[in-house]
Amino acid sequence: MGLEVIEKLKECGLSDLVVFHQLDVADSASIAAHADFVKIQFGKLDILVNNAGVTGTIVDPEAMRGAAAAGIVKDGVGVNWSEIMTQTYELAEVCVKTNYYVAKKMTKALLSSSYLIHQELSIFLLAWDR
């Protein structure tokens, strides 16, 4: 998918502004390789945006479409979410692991590879780690 985006950006003349690097946020070796890439390519990390995540649910697409067609998903009133989504303990574990612990691991790896860490961010991360 990332390479497809690069190709679309080339069509718009913006590809020189974007660098693609493969990353599997659930794989420690991939995280370390990405942190090394950032350090070598850019010297430091200025901004980290985490947009990877999982919902921790299984959604029944037909039930969701039906609720959307009826207009009840828009405001959530009258939605029987148990008919649309399934939640299990295992899915909740994956959700917390991915959305919290993997994001934390990524942040630590990328900040440790960076030469510049703002004092306010360091204080936040220390508080977050407790």
Automatic annotation (TrEMBL):
GO terms for cellular component: membrane. The keyword Cytoplasm does not apply. Coiled coil: none annotated. The keyword Membrane does not apply. Keywords: NADP, Oxidoreductase. GO terms for molecular function: oxidoreductase activity. Belongs to the short-chain dehydrogenases/reductases (SDR) family. This is Uncharacterized protein. The lineage of its organism: Eukaryota, Viridiplantae, Streptophyta, Embryophyta, Tracheophyta.
